[in-house]
Structure formats: C-alpha cells, structure tokens
Amino acid sequence: MSRVSAERYSSLIDPVLTAIDGIIAAAERRGSDARAAGEFLEFKLYATLHIGDQIRNQLQTATSVAEAGVDGVIEVSLDRAARFALYVLVDGFLFESVSIRDALLQFVNMVFGLRISEDDRDILKKLKQGLQITRDGNTGLEEWIDQSRYPSWLTKLIRLRNITTHRHPLRLPEQFQWREEGNGPPSWRGLVAIESVAENYEQLESFIERTEQEVAGLLRMSLNQLGAFLVK
Question: What CA–CA distances, in Å, run from 174 to 82, 156, 168, 188, 208?
C-alpha cells in the first residue's frame, strides 16, 4: 500500500475504530458483549475501502486505448478480461458498502441486548420499536434506519446495489480524452463512468472516492452520536 493510500485509510478508518471501541466498552458495562459484531462492522468498512483501491488499480488496465494505426486510422484496444474484472469489482464495492448498514444494525442489536435473530428480516422495524427511533430522534441511527431520513446518496447507493444484485450489471461507459505523456506518441485514453442515476453518469473513480468518504463519514458521525446516547 502506498503512503498516500495508508494515510487515506487512516483518516477514514481510525475515527470509526475509536468510536466502535468506546461503544463496546460501554456495552460491556451494561452486560452486553458486542465485540464480534463490532469486528464485523470494521470488516465491512475495510472491505469497502479495499475494493475501492482495487477498482482504482483495475482502471489502469480496464480502459480502452485509441491510437493512430496504419494510414492514420484510429485503432482501439481493450483488455476484455480486465474490463470484466472491473464489473465484478464494482458489484463487490456496492455490495460491501451497503452491507455496512446491515453490519451496523447487528452491532446495535448486540450493544443493546435486543436479542433480535441475525436472520430476522424485520430487524429494521424491530430496532425502531426497541430503541424508539423516530424522525426527530438523536440516537445516531436515524439516517440508517428511518427511510425518511436517508441521505440522498445512501438512497441512490442502495438502489444501485439492488440493480446490480437483482437485475443487471450497471452500465460502465467510456469517454475518450486526449493524452500526451513523456516521449511516447499521443493517444486517446478512455475514462470509465458509472450510471449513478438513470441517464446520468459520473466518472467511476470519483464515484468510488465520494462513496467511501460519505459512508465512512456518516458511520463515524452515527457511532459518535450513539456513544453519547449510550451514556445518558
């Protein structure tokens, strides 16, 4: 991992780990053991960032290169295996990033000793009832549990995960950009985008980075708020 990547990981993850440790300690004082659930939540965040880095690396080989060929004809080359791997990684990124919410719910279930079954499909409803989560509450969980308070980016992220999981792979079209590097011949380089909203596209690399920051940021804020709620 490069120094830049390590520093970025630290800035996104360290505050979350600190908050999780504090909540686990508070839960233990209440007689609940949430360590395993806390580790699972950490794993989901690590997995999201790890796949994000893999996507950034994969983009180096998964984009088309257009160069002048014989008689000035533009020839486009594409590593199809690398492009397929990119689709798989995007699918994994969406799955893991949305799974952070599911891991958080299980963590909260253990912290408060609610004893909701891990495979209970009504866990959202039961958590709202058990913790009395309302639109105007401040437990730190409202933005994850109450759909009326979902941030717009989380709503879109869940929709994208549902599309690629249950319907079809997301479109990853390319836009070509003129490139001149070093002593080599100039060429056109493809920039991969993602259809983040119907008919609206965003560069895949910026989408990945923005999602990482938003997920980690909301998780940090929610855990800090939950920690304060616990000690009331």
Answer: 14, 21, 18, 11, 16
